[in-house]
Amino acid sequence: MSNEIQDSRSQQSLVAQVRARTPARILVPRAGVSYDVSTHLELRADHAAALDAVRTELDFARDFSPEFVAERRLFEVQSQAGSKHEYLLRPDLGRKLGDEARELVLSRCQRNRDVQLVVGDGLSAQAVRAQVPLLLPALETLIRQRGLSLGQTFAIRYCRVGIMNEVGELLSPKVVVLLIGERPGLATSESLSAYLAFQPRQGHTDAQRNLISNIHARGIPPLAAAERIALAISQLLHSQASGVGIDISTAAPLPLPPPGG
Fold first, then answer.
1. Considering the entire predicted model, what is its pTM?
2. Contacts for 29-36 with beta carbons within 8 Å, 24 or more apart?
3. Are 122 and 180 in contact (CB under 8 A)?
4. Domains observed in the chain
5. Cα–Cα distance measured from residue 177 to residue 131, given in angstroms and rounded to the nearest whole number
6. How far apart (Å, rounded) are the C-alpha atoms in residues 181 and 200?
7. Taking a C-beta distance cutoff of 8 angstroms, is the pair 170, 152 a contact?
8. What is residue 60's three-state secondary structure?
9. Mean pLDDT split into 10-residue runs, the chain, 261 residues
10. Is 198 helix (H, G, I), strand (E, B) or coil?
11. How far apart are CA 189 and CA 249, in angstroms?
12. CB 237 within 8 Å of CB 174
């Protein structure tokens, strides 16, 4: 009997270690061919969180501290989408700035910088709120340590990735980095992506961009993401190009979380 108990505890420990290494629902309890009640309720809660994340609006007063905004002189503009509802129905409008937004960007931002950082709400303002206050200061420091000139950072409400092309046309930086909320899933609603493009212009597609995704506590932590983004910027500047022909991957693997962590 003692051997059976020991084997059972060993199996439970192994299952716990495996589950600690991924947010995916693997080796979860079942009731017949269905999930048990606790897993089913967790799914329902995570689905509701994902829906909330998609509908949540970017709010400077809520998402960033006054000191964070003032130190960077952050300001906000809006895409041509007039509301979150229109933004979700018309992705094309999220790829363009309105006339007032263009004028404000041109009046407050410097042209021809090495790096232009942009924050976009995307499909999860919650991701912006959770990750950007940690990631952005670290990234700014790393960029400046490399002796690169940094443009005036600004945020775009109702933002799609393609708006990078318009930012490139307006400000002519060498590299545009867009920090944007990812489409929420059942694993997390707080995942941020960093898109990078060398001299983006109208007509450029995802083939001319590079991506570092899954920036969140159980993916790539914000400070580690800042290092990866800074390295990728250096690679794009060295190659004078971006996109599918540029490898921005790193050799160092991510450490696995401790069991139960």
1. 0.81
2. none
3. yes
4. 55-239 (3.40.50.11240)
5. 15
6. 20
7. no
8. helix
9. 61 70 70 74 66 74 92 96 92 94 97 98 91 96 95 96 97 98 75 96 94 91 95 94 86 46 44
10. strand
11. 24
12. yes
